[in-house]
């Protein structure tokens, strides 16, 4: 139980580091680290909840989230110059905003009537927080490739929520979710490269040609 809550806390910390990272390459590496924490959390949850399907979830999550998706994002940066893109929101605001999100989600999770052990509700609150932190990354960053990482954070949060609330779901469900996320990232990276080749910028505020 203690290890599960520690790993859940590490998910929040790594999310904050991903959002605050100055380059997409560093953010992708931190996302890989976070996904490794998520994989470890799946393994501990499998033992705690006696859900053997979560072991298979951890394997597929390791392949897609720890290895493949970060590799795609890092590869995408090789042909893109992101040095001229402003950082967006001041990073000093991320800590109080993150704290507020965690507190609100913890209070919300405590009120939920779900078939979940009481000591696992902190992990559920983290999964809900993760979704909102991904949204924070999307709205606070001007670098559109960093916004893709915001989607990845949201997907990690929804993945953990599913593991907690539907741990007995077939492995096929997990494979479907992982595959959807994998192809979504590929499509978004292709679109980002197309935008960069056309407009020579990754700054979301400079994409005026996309406005109606």
Automatic annotation (TrEMBL):
Broad class of where this protein is predominantly found: membrane
Topological category with respect to the lipid bilayer: Multi-pass membrane protein
Record has Cell membrane as a keyword: yes
Localization, UniProt: Cell membrane
GO cellular component: plasma membrane
Transmembrane segment boundaries: 30-47, 54-76, 91-110, 122-141, 175-196
Highest taxon of the lineage: Bacteria
Keywords attached to this entry: Cell membrane, Membrane, Transmembrane, Transmembrane helix
Gene3D superfamilies: 1.10.287.3510
PANTHER family: HYDROGENASE-4 COMPONENT E
Record-given protein name: Hydrogenase-4 component E
Source organism: Mesocricetibacter intestinalis
């Amino acid at each position: 139980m203690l290890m599960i809550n520690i790993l859940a806390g590490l998910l929040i910390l790594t999310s904050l580091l991903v959002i605050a990272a100055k380059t997409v390459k560093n953010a992708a590496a931190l996302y890989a680290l976070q996904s490794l924490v998520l994989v470890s959390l799946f393994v501990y949850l499998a033992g705690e909840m006696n859900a053997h399907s979560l072991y298979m979830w951890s394997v597929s999550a390791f392949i897609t989230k720890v290895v493949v998706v970060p590799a795609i994002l890092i590869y995408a940066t090789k042909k893109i110059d992101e040095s001229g893109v402003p950082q967006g929101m001041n990073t000093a605001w991320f800590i109080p905003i993150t704290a507020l999100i965690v507190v609100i989600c913890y209070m919300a999770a405590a009120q939920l009537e779900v078939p979940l052990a009481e000591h696992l509700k902190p992990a559920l609150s983290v999964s809900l927080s993760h979704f909102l932190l991904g949204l924070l990354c999307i709205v606070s960053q001007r670098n559109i490739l960093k916004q893709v990482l915001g989607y990845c954070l949201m997907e990690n949060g929804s993945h953990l929520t599913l593991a907690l609330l539907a741990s007995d779901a077939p492995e096929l469900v997990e494979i479907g979710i992982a595959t959807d996320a994998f192809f979504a990232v590929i499509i978004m990276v292709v679109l980002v490269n197309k935008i960069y080749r056309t407009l020579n910028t990754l700054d979301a505020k400079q994409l005026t040609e996309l406005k109606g």
